[in-house]
User: Fold this.
Amino acid sequence: MIHAYQVVVAAPYVAALVLLVIPGYRLGAIANVAASALTFGAGLWLMVSERVVSDYAIVDEFNIVFIVINTLVGFTTALFSASYIGHEIETGRLTPNLLRFYHAMFQAMMGSMNLALVANNIGLMWVGLELATLITVVMVGLYRTPQAIEAAWKYFILASVGISLAFFGTILIYLAGQPVLGEGVPAMTWNLLQAAASRMDPAILDLAFIFLLIGYGTKVGLAPLHAWLPDAHAEGPTPISAVLSGLLLNVALYALLRFKMVVAGQPAALDPGPIMIVMGLVSLIFAAFMLYQRRDIKRLFAYSSIEHMGLMVFAFGMGGPLANFAGLLHMTMHSLTKSGIFFAVGHIAQAKGSQRIADIKGLSVTHPRLAVAFALAVFAISGLPPFGVFTSEFLILTTTFARDPWLALLPAFGLLVGFGALLMRLQDTIFGEPVGPAHRVDASSVPLVLHLLLVLTAGIYLPPVLVAWFQRAAELLG
Amino acid sequence: MNHAYEISHLLAGVMLVTSFALLYQQRVAAVLNTFAAQSIALALAVAWAAWSQGRPDLFITALIALTLKGIVIPVALHRTVARLGIHREVEKVVGVGVALMVGLALTGLAQALLFKVTHGTASHAREELALALAIILLGFLMMIVRRNAVTQIVGFMSMENGLILAATGARGMPLVVEVSVAFSVLIALFVFAVFVFRIRERFDTIDIEALDRMRGDRR
Assistant:
């Protein structure tokens, strides 16, 4: 009997192999959508199927949240990409062969992220996350412009530093688990490590967590390890920016949270909470100020991703059922909204033939419907009601306020600073005299509208089933 | 039993010495030769661990380290350097003296950190791990203080050598050694195919300085 989690991991990899041999990019794009739809179906199926704990795979309430978001956004991004990427051939930025490679790599990346999410083995999880990272490095360099190559090189160097530190941390966790659980596979298995954490040497766990925090924190995009993130978002194809911000950062955060659960099981080890609170706040406030100086629209939203990842890390650092619930909700809302924004940015870049904010004036005159959709998406990400991001940010701030009123001032300040920057930039792009060319946009607006509707619905009414499910996941997080 | 650890320490020590040697080489060709020597020392260390721990699967790791990192990659990089006609001298961000002093401090840090933390585990494992961490940190240092793309790649691969040493030092660690070797293959291919040639194509140089001119927002 095949279990849903096997489909979630295997389907994208099989699809990647098939896509490598499919001639013609139109057929490839359709096959890409079909494979992503299949994976999303399997992700939904996972919600109702039995929970799994085996030597190599784990499916619990906590990682299902991540898997469903991952497969959903993977599917909508494939949909967006199918209608978007043909344009890149017309403008000569990509060749049909490169596009075939792109589709195959897209599926391989989805498969690797899903592998990292279902792995019950810390080594296997590392492999999944690193494979996904290396594939995105190649994707970022896909256009082969000097800027793209520089971005890919910077990403490669910083990611490889992250890879190495995370791997050394993984070895240290194994060393901590080995005297308790014995040599071999058990000392690398999540659920066993978590159960046995109280008997492990706290000093080794401390050191391991520091390495893992820096290693995986580089991938989450926490300041001061974020330098790769804006370049990688700006220079790669837009669907990849959507997946980077919406998904890959989440998967890295997931790895960090799993290790936090292990270390938290040993009371004598250092408390991961305060470290995460500080790193989260630094990223949040730093990124909020950086938003003001951006000239490139994709860089702008890349910094906004750093800001929101910082807020999530802050929430998870606070810990406890309420803050964890708020953090998980914020992660979901951010994934949906941010990938939606990158879809809109893709439309704008096609309409204006440029990513520079100065070139995107007067959108409301030339492309009124696109301007409205983009404005709504930016309202959503800057935390205005009635969108879901408002709900989650409000929850994070109120839980913090209940515990420590002074501490709540800092994230509130960061969010306000970021809010101002986003509205200023929104005004620059929407209003004013139109400049430059105004092309017709071919890309489909269905994924963008779908994401906006989901975020709006979540902001107005969260179904009790969903709330109960997130609460169970938040409790697992401790 | 005792001399088993002494031999593995000796080989790990040789690797550490080559890490320092990588920092003071003046010519790219010498950097590549030193890296090859380090990889051969790694292959011997892994082979010794395979024999003394009775884990035949580690011999595969040793063989891959020997052929790929000891021979194929250095030879290929030598040819790349010759064909592209890039600078034969190592371009430095800081001088040799400063780099060596920082390297020494990092090695001391690695020893102090791990000895302090791992007092519970068996002594041979922690000494091996401390040496491995020193090699990893020196690899980082090399990536930071050397400017040229080829020397940065060598710094990265030397860091990987340290990681593989650490993984073999952790007794009975499953799966990961094989996987990390697979990764070094992947990364090596990736580095060659994607970067060296594309950077050449675009800039007629593989000096990272040329890339840095494109830094920041487009204006």
